[in-house]
Write a structure and sequence with these properties.
By secondary structure, the protein is mainly α. The protein is 81% helix and 0% strand.
């Protein structure tokens, strides 16, 4: 996966819950 794709996925993931995408992705990684 490219860096751009990863950022896009994190951003999409984040906006659904109202969190900034990158922060939401980091939180998700920590919780796993």
């Amino acid at each position: 996966m490219s860096k751009t794709q990863a950022i896009a996925l994190l951003t999409d993931f984040g906006t659904k819950d109202g969190y900034p995408g990158i922060m939401k992705g980091v939180i998700a990684c920590i919780q796993r």
